[in-house]
Amino acid sequence: MKRTQKLHLAVFGCGFWAQYQTAAWQELSDQIEIIALCDRDLSRARSLAGKLGIGHYYDSPEKLLQDHSPHIVDIITDVDSHPSLAKLAADHGAHVICQKPMAASLEKAVEMTRYLKGKKVKFYVHENFRWQAPIRLLKTYLQEGLIGRPFKANIKFCSSFPVFENQPFLAELDQFILTDVGTHILDVTRFLFGEAESLFCQTQRINPKIQGEDVANVFMRMQNAVDCYAEMSYATIWEHERFPETYIMIEGSKGSLYLGPKFTISITTDEGTRTEVVPIEPFSWAHVEYALIHSSIYACNANILSELTGNGVAETTGEDNLKTLQLVYDAYESAKRKKVIHY
Ligand SMILES: NC(=O)c1ccc[n+]([C@@H]2O[C@H](COP(=O)([O-])OP(=O)(O)OC[C@H]3O[C@@H](n4cnc5c(N)ncnc54)[C@H](O)[C@@H]3O)[C@@H](O)[C@H]2O)c1
What we know:
By secondary structure, the chain is α/β, with parallel strands linked by helices. It is 35% helix and 25% strand.
């Protein structure tokens, strides 16, 4: 049934990413209202509440839930706290949206998804990369058959962007690039080509100052017979450094599609090459270095909201995201054991 009244949203976690996630929600203020914020560091909750003009802020998630009974909780905290906060929100009858990675292991993610299902609340992972405008257009072109049957793809997210400056906690993760970026890139792979038939991964740590791996190369044969090579690196110094852009080359029986720097798509067939620059929605609140990704936050929020208001179907459900997480943790397993995983 379609809703006419605004949904009430509460946000847990008021750190780096919450600034943008909340600003993107405010773009949808005709349908949803942020009613309260929570951070275990009250000064962060107070500061973000002040910026957004929200009257209620807390350092206790439980107290917030008791006081406001929100329809939805958006969890933007560190990964270790995702399962317990999601369960707490569900215990109070709230639908849950959670940042990636859903949980710090596949087992915890499966258990969390099962728990939320048992509570009969809706559960989404805020997987925004597939909502980037150039990536959506590539998918449209594939579906329209512009390059015939795709047989090979390279998805490349490589840079030397100093990601640890904005997110210092990432330097301390034992499992870094596959959980942080692999969740996005392997989800884009599934979005474009469907599920994997087999997977092999190699990882490396180049930056000696961090704990986990900062390079991962994942090779997959997809069920639709596309050979897909997904490359991720935060140690790559090169000419086309344009974080956070993903470059994607797809080869098909009748031509190729290439998403290159500056949101440019080239379509090459027997008739030659046509290029176009995909427009990115310019939000005033977007960080200049993350504008592409920030516009995808809005699109992802709008998709989730469409389901919650009875106007559409959300793509990035918890159940769907388990398939992406399976690839992430299988990639670690493959790298550790130096073996191909078959599905
Ligand atoms: N989709 C994307 O492109 C993207 C980009 C950046 C971050 N993220 C995700 O967003 C999440 C947060 O990342 P961040 O960079 O904002 O981290 P951050 O450390 O800047 O912020 C996290 C906040 O959560 C608070 N917090 C932690 N546990 C809590 C608890 N139990 N109760 C209340 N508050 C708690 C912390 O005090 C902190 O203020 C992570 O899951 C991260 O992967 C996603």
